[in-house]
Amino acid sequence: MTDPILTQRDGAILTVTLNLPEKRNPVSDNGLIDLLFETMQAADADIGVRCVILTGAGSAFSAGGDLKAMKDGTGLRATLPAQTRRNYREGIQRLPLMFHALEVPVIAAINGPAIGAGLDLACMCDVRVAADTAVFAESFVKLGIVPGDGGAWLLPRVIGFARATELTLTGETFDAAYALEIGLVSRVVPAGDLLATARTIADKIAANPPHAVRMTRRLLREAQTATLAATLELSAAMQSLAHATRDNDEAIDAFIERRAPDFTGE
Questions:
Q1: What is the dihedral of CA 93, 94, 95, 97, to 10 degrees?
Q2: pLDDT of residue 31 exceeding 90
């Protein structure tokens, strides 16, 4: 049986690959959701993992939901509406809550189509890099449904309300160049350079003090919905923790001594 999630650890970087290429990596698959949930939580619990790269096997990053399962009633849609609600809450809706709560940074290396829930999965990540062959769509409306996985919350926070509204209500497909133009991704590179580019970014993140990186990531997430006053209060609390680390002293000493720092996560 194919493992729906593959992992590869290289130093401080963990690469996580969605591995149902014959189905184009549907994030409505409960087996994939469960393993992705467990894998990301384990990475978050390990301070030695300083960055995660998330990508897809085969031609797609994730084509969203499994339409065949939706059609035959084995997917999220059940005969009883109340059960459909439970399927969403206990299935795919676990992912945006989990990603939001993470402290380890996650880079989406979008190797191919990111459609529907696949686009929303990319939006759950902190940094998005796309192959020049990637395509995107917030296409739920084309199927007569709504973004049931949190896309109405996620996409506007990445690209702004006006563009998110247009793309969500039209459901239109767009290419990587437009994704870069609207700020959905930070870089577009040739497909063959995608993972190397994501790794370069990951290495730059991993070179920084891990506690400071994780608290900064947490601060950025909380600031999405907090007031300025609440964000400042949280910043002060986290700063007191950051100042107490050995890595803070090491950063200052290395700067003064004009040498490369040696950050240990202490």
A1: 100
A2: no
